[in-house]
Write a structure and sequence with these properties.
- The complex is a heterodimer of chains A (about 550) and B (about 180).
- Chain A has about 550 residues and is α+β, with helices and mostly antiparallel strands.
- Chain A has 19 helices and 18 strands.
- In chain A, the strands form four sheets. Chain A has a six-stranded mixed beta sheet.
- With about 180 residues, chain B is mostly beta strands.
- Chain B is globular.
- The chains are: A alpha+beta (about 550), B mainly beta (about 180).
- At the A-B interface, helix 7, strand 17 and strand 18 of A face strand 4, strand 5, strand 6 and helix 4 of B.
- Chain B: It holds the Pfam family CheW.
């Protein structure tokens, strides 16, 4: 396993070498056409980028040279001076020196300041005559013996990686099928070959998944700027702390949560953190704290967006829910804090402007929820009035493969993503009771509504018949699902096993049915429907007796 | 619309043959233009998909593609005795709809048949009696003592037709049945 530092250095090297090659090329263009604006602009941009990335990596020697050259090209571009005269050899030397410094970084050698060059560059910047040494020819001799190098890194469009991942997904499905067949046929040679094939397919899968991983930092590092801009616009003082940039996650997952993260950060500054005056009045420091952090949590990545602002006023959200007719006064008062928070994510509720004004939260939270749901992730919120709010996003590391619980219903296999599975229990009907027509099971001191999945999936859309224990005999296999803090027990015919599955989207036109997150093929060749817990939960709420 | 031109025998009396795949639904013979048929196979194992209209038998794995399988006898209520489910060996015709492939389940092996284009007539008015709504019918082919109803699959296989719902509806597909 390569260290992170090593990987960063390789990335820096690849970018810097590419930049160096491009700069050399633009320099030779300028030699022929000193007024070529495209080449001047590119040189300016490349030097600027090199300066920034070199300084970020701590290679200040490169940064110093690049900075001065950038200034000179800025002057040339602004037509303050021509690309001519004694400045030209100095600039060429500068490019050469940058090249050798970049190579020194690659070879892990210490960098030395080139004092003569820096002084000459300073003179050119100041419009003075540079001191050209007689041995300026040495540089060109070095040029002649220089080796040509190709970068060790390649850039690859994410589309190609997507395609590769899809192919791997198909391969895994076929592998499972071949494994099953080999077992059924009982041929030992075939079995050993398939076992090897299986290991290769595993390796390939993990390699492709690994190739798609990027550091969360690639997204997080865009936020200091966002926070500064939003804070300025809102006239608030905010200090942003970022941690866990090195945590690895699939690039497409990062892409999908970009808008959500932006939403949450904007909300935190706009509605969470108070103005300096309000903060002082509340006995808090003037500068609000906002933190973005990532950490691994088993197979998932946990992203936390935390502020020390005014927090969510649970009572006001309750009142708003009643006013908007979402809940009866009675029902609202019985909701737990967690249930109140989950209201914020409901469509229609969260987009309501009044809630935004009062609770300071809610803008587009349903959109955030949808994005996270589409990834099979979870989002939840914790808040303390007057002390701040924290949003937690639990995301899968990779989209391709998901852990799932397989079970059987009326002779057909089904899968439920583990992400939304809380626990599995087997209970006898006597352990459950009926309240208001709904079956309740007590699991770990918590009363959880339970429904027979067959009934829930029945074609009928009318309200469920009142539950009765009469049609339940013997131990019932129950899967407790958890979505948005709402737990629901599903009675299934039989648990099968836990397995990593590759989810394929349901093909048209059946993709209109939102109950299914997709399908997967089992090793037996059987088609297995993957249930979508968010949709199931909504269906249950809609059909509850 | 070249198809309707071909069907209009008064205007165009050409003898270009039309290749059909002919299959039986209920007591009648139906045909589909061969270009629309991707393949015919033994029906693979079908997983019933809850919340779909009854005539959608479910989804099946056809060479790695997961496709929906539908039963047109049930769709058009052509089954002789209504409660008689399809049993035994059946065949599935994989058809290429606009954006997807879909399987149609049939009891007997569908047969290719070449007929002159001029033998396909526009469906007459009495077609209402045939259970199959005339908007899905491209024409009627008369051959000696056979009558083959030529279906316009593209019209029959739109998502709205299959799900029997308006686009963008929720999971309440089943409620809109019939």
């Amino acid at each position: 396993m390569k260290s992170r530092e090593q990987e960063y250095r390789e990335m820096f090297m690849a970018e810097a070498l590419e930049g160096y090659d491009a700069m050399s090329q633009h320099m030779s263009v300028l030699e022929k056409r000193p007024q070529d604006e495209a080449a001047l602009g590119e040189l300016f941009r490349l030097l600027h980028n090199l300066k920034a990335s070199a300084r970020a990596m701590g290679h200040n020697e490169i940064g110093e040279v690049a900075h001065r050259m950038e200034t000179i090209f800025g002057q040339i571009r602004a037509k303050e001076r021509p690309f001519a005269g004694s400045a030209v050899p100095v600039l060429f030397t500068g490019i050469d020196v940058l090249g050798s410094m970049i190579r020194a970084v690659g070879a892990n050698e210490p960098l030395a300041e080139n004092q003569a060059l820096l002084e000459n560059l300073d003179r050119v910047v100041a419009g003075e005559e540079p001191v050209l040494a007689d041995d300026s020819e040495v540089g060109s001799e070095e040029d002649a013996t220089r080796k040509l190098e190709l970068s060790d890194l390649v850039y690859i469009p994410i589309k190609k990686l997507d395609h590769l991942l899809n192919l791997v997904g198909e391969l895994i499905i076929d592998r499972d099928r071949v494994l099953t067949l080999a077992r059924e046929l009982g041929d030992t040679t075939l079995q050993s070959v398939t076992a090897h094939l299986s290991r290769l397919a595993d390796d390939l899968q993990y390699s492709v998944m690994d190739a798609r991983l990027v550091g969360v930092g690639t997204l997080f590092n865009k936020f200091p700027r966002v926070v500064r801009d939003v804070a300025t616009a809102e006239q608030k003082q905010v200090e942003l702390t970022i941690s866990g940039q090195d945590i690895q996650i699939d690039r497409n997952i990062l892409q999908i949560i970009t808008d959500s993260l932006l939403h949450l950060v904007r909300n935190a500054i706009g509605h969470g953190i108070e103005t300096p005056a309000e903060r002082v009045k509340a006995g808090k420091p003037e500068v609000g704290q906002l933190s973005l952090s990532a950490q691994t949590d088993r197979d998932n990545v946990l992203i936390r967006i935390s502020d020390d602002g005014r927090g969510i006023d649970v009572e006001r959200v309750r009142r708003k829910a009643v006013e908007r007719g979402v809940l009866s006064r009675d029902a609202a008062s019985r909701l737990s804090e967690a249930e109140v928070y989950s209201l914020l994510f409901d469509a229609g509720f969260s987009t309501a402007e009044q809630v935004t004004e009062i609770s300071g939260r809610g803008v587009g939270l349903d959109v955030v929820k949808l994005a996270i749901d589409s990834l099979g992730g979870q989002v939840r919120v914790e808040s303390k009035l007057g002390e701040g709010t924290t949003f937690f996003l639990v995301l899968p590391t990779s989209i391709a493969v998901k852990g799932a619980l397989l079970f059987e219903l009326e002779g057909h296999p089904y899968a439920l993503p583990l992400m939304h599975t809380d626990s599995v229990v087997s209970l006898s009907p006597e352990k459950m009771h009926i309240v208001g027509g709904t079956l309740l099971a007590k699991v770990l001191d918590e009363n959880i509504p339970v429904v027979r999945l067959t009934e829930l999936l029945a074609d009928d859309d009318a309200a469920l018949p009142p539950a009765s224990r009469a049609n339940l005999t013997g131990l019932q296999d129950i899967i407790i699902t958890n979505y948005n803090g709402r737990k629901l027990g599903l009675i299934v015919d039989r648990f099968l096993r836990q397995q990593d599955i590759v989810i394929k989207p349901v093909s048209q036109p059946l993709d209109m049915i939102e109950l299914f997150g997709g399908v997967t093929l089992l090793g037996s060749g059987q088609v297995c429907l993957v249930l979508d817990v968010p949709a199931l939960t909504r269906l249950f709420l809609a059909r509850r007796p | 619309m070249p198809d309707s031109q071909a069907a209009d025998k008064k205007a165009y009396k050409s003898e270009v043959p039309v290749q059909l795949i002919v299959f039986r639904l209920g007591e009648e013979e139906y045909g589909i233009r061969i270009e629309q048929v991707k393949e015919v196979t033994l029906t693979p194992e079908i997983a019933r998909m809850p919340k779909t209209p009854r005539f959608v038998k479910g989804i099946a794995n056809l060479r790695g593609d997961i496709i929906a399988i539908i039963d047109l006898e049930e769709r058009f209520r052509l089954r002789p005795s209504n409660n008689d489910p399809v049993t035994g060996v059946t065949y599935t015709m994989a058809l290429e709809a606009k954006d997807y492939t879909i399987g149609i389940i049939v009891r007997e092996v569908p047969q290719p048949l070449s007929i002159p284009a001029s033998s396909i007539e526009k469906a007459p008015e009495f077609i209402q009696d045939l259970n199959v709504h005339d908007k899905y019918i491209e024409g009627i082919a008369r051959l000696e003592n056979r009558i083959i109803i030529v279906l316009d699959m593209l019209k029959l296989l739109t998502p709205e037709e299959i799900m029997q719902l308006k686009p963008k509806a929720t999971s309440s597909a089943a409620a809109e049945r019939r």
